[in-house]
Each structure stands twice: as structure tokens, then as C-alpha cells.
């Protein structure tokens, strides 16, 4: 079994933790002295780190906002409307408004209810709820 767990460098771990908790993530474990936290939401897992030094796995290029340019991370949730309400309650700007979208595949289409939002460092997150499949 293979698992992909992204580790996101952040500029302010407390702000990032507050944001990810708003999305419904919980801390599985952390190392506050190292400014590190391992988070989970259902089957989604990610790590946050605010590096103490520019060593080991720190990017060689200068980090400029928005971090993570060129990727978006899809996080599947059971209730995207609940996440949407939580984001609106704190006036969080959505990158992509809440929508229902059907993506065609070879023999069918898969439906999702989704939105996209940037975290405090600009990582683009697509929050998605599976709506089912239908014939093409």
C-alpha cells in the first residue's frame, strides 16, 4: 500500500493550524518545539512545518507567496456545505466558489460538489464531496 502525505512549509504554524482546524482537520500528533504538526481529516493526511532553519528539506529557492504554485491539493470531505459555511463565517475568500461539477471519464462521469480556497500561505486546496457517477 502506498500513501502520499504532503508536508507543507508554512510561515506561521499557529495561523495554519487554525485554518486547517476550521476545515475540520485534527492534530494526530505534533512536535511544538520543532513547529511541526501531523494532521488528519477522514483519510486525508498532511503535515505542517514552520522550519527553524534553512537546512535538510527546506527548498533551495526563495519561498514567495503563494507557496506551492502549480499544484492544488484535493481533500475529500463528507459534507462540503459544512466546510463552506465555516469558511463564510470567518469571511474567508474563496478561490473557486462552491459548485457542482461533472467530470467525464471513458464510460461515465463522476460528480463532485467542490470549492477551492487558499490556506494562509497560498497553498490551493480543492475541498470536494463525491456526488456519485452517471452514464456518459
UniProtKB/TrEMBL annotation:
One example of a Gene Ontology biological process annotation: response to antibiotic
Keyword Phosphoprotein: no
Gene3D superfamilies tied to this protein: 2,3-Dihydroxybiphenyl 1,2-Dioxygenase, domain 1
Domain VOC: 1-130
Keywords: Antibiotic resistance
Domain of life assignment: Bacteria
InterPro entries: Bleomycin-R, Glyas_Bleomycin-R_OHBP_Dase, Glyas_Fos-R_dOase_dom, VOC_core
Family stated for the protein in its record: Belongs to the bleomycin resistance protein family.
Name used for this protein in its record: Bleomycin resistance protein
Taxonomic lineage of the native organism: Bacteria, Bacillati, Actinomycetota, Actinomycetes, Streptosporangiales
Amino acid at each position: 500500500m502506498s500513501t502520499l502525505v504532503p508536508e507543507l512549509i508554512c510561515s506561521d504554524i499557529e495561523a495554519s493550524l487554525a485554518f486547517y482546524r476550521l476545515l475540520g482537520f485534527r492534530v494526530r500528533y505534533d512536535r511544538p518545539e520543532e513547529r511541526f504538526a501531523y494532521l488528519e481529516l477522514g483519510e486525508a493526511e498532511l503535515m505542517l512545518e514552520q522550519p527553524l532553519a534553512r537546512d535538510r528539506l527546506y527548498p533551495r529557492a526563495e519561498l514567495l507567496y503563494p507557496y506551492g504554485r502549480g499544484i492544488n491539493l484535493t481533500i475529500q470531505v463528507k459534507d462540503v456545505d459544512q466546510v463552506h459555511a465555516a469558511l463564510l463565517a470567518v469571511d474567508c475568500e474563496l478561490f473557486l466558489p462552491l459548485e457542482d461539477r461533472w467530470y467525464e471519464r471513458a464510460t461515465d462521469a463522476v460528480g463532485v460538489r467542490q470549492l477551492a480556497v487558499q490556506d494562509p500561505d497560498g497553498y490551493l486546496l480543492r475541498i470536494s464531496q463525491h456526488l456519485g457517477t452517471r452514464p456518459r
